């Protein structure tokens, strides 16, 4: 097996283990890590609002996948659906007040867990990993 294939397999295993750990910790806030990433994207966007298709693309899932993810989030009040004033065919998603609170609380948990998961790395090593990860995302 070539080094690239070995890297992909080990990265996939790392991703799965980290996702499981993050999901376990986000469950303390009643959300999954994927739901947290949705809240994060909305929190980081202008007016805490995004088009569904842009939100789906930003977290790497399909348009139908984001619709399935958002339905229970809307039901429990983390996000709200809005119509687009410029295009009635297009719906927008907005972070609700409750969503802001859950996001803030879960962000504190994410900071703690992320630090504990990477405490064996130096700041320089972590910065290099981030640099290389971003390069692969291009």
**Derived structural class:** mainly alpha
Outline, from the CA principal axes?
Answer: globular
Number of helices: 6
What does the radius of gyration come to? 17 Å
Low-pLDDT residue spans: none
The CATH topology corresponds to Arc Repressor Mutant, subunit A
Q: Which percent bin holds the helix content?
A: 55-70%
User: Quick one: CATH superfamily?
Assistant: Winged helix-like DNA-binding domain superfamily/Winged helix DNA-binding domain
Count of β-strands = 3
* Order of SSEs: HHEHHEEHH
CATH class equals Mainly Alpha
Question: Which whole number gives the mean pLDDT?
Answer: 93
What is the first-to-last residue Cα distance?
25 Å
Q: Which percent range describes the beta-strand content?
A: 5-15%
Q: For the report, how would you describe the main beta sheet? A: 3 strands, antiparallel
Question: Oligomeric status of the shown chains?
Answer: single chain
Descriptive overview:
This protein is mainly α. The protein has one domain: Arc Repressor Mutant, subunit A (Orthogonal Bundle). It has six helices and three strands. Strand 2 and strand 3 (91-95) form a beta hairpin. Helix 2 packs across helix 5 (97-118) and helix 3 packs across helix 4 (63-75). It is globular. The two termini are 25 Å apart. The mean pLDDT is 93.
Question: How would the blueprint of this fold be written?
Answer:
Layout: H1 3-26, H2 33-44, E1 49-51, H3 52-59, H4 63-75, E2 79-83, E3 91-95, H5 97-118, H6 123-137
Helix pairs in contact: 2-5, 3-4
List keywords for this structure.
globular; 9% strand; Arc Repressor Mutant, subunit A; 6 helices; 3-stranded antiparallel sheet; 138 residues; 3 strands; 68% helix; mainly alpha
């Amino acid at each position: 097996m070539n080094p690239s294939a070995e890297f992909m397999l080990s990265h996939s295993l790392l991703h799965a283990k980290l996702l499981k750990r993050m999901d376990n910790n986000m469950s303390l806030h009643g959300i999954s890590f994927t739901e947290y990433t949705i809240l994060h994207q909305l929190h980081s966007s202008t007016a805490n609002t995004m088009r569904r298709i842009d939100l789906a693309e930003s977290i790497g899932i399909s348009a139908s996948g984001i619709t399935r993810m958002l339905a229970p989030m809307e039901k429990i009040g983390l996000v709200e659906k809005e119509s687009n004033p410029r295009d009635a065919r297009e719906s927008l998603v907005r972070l609700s007040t409750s969503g802001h609170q859950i996001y803030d609380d879960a962000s504190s948990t994410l900071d703690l867990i992320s630090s504990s998961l990477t405490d064996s790395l130096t700041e320089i090593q972590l910065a290099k990993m981030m640099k290389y990860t971003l390069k692969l995302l291009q």
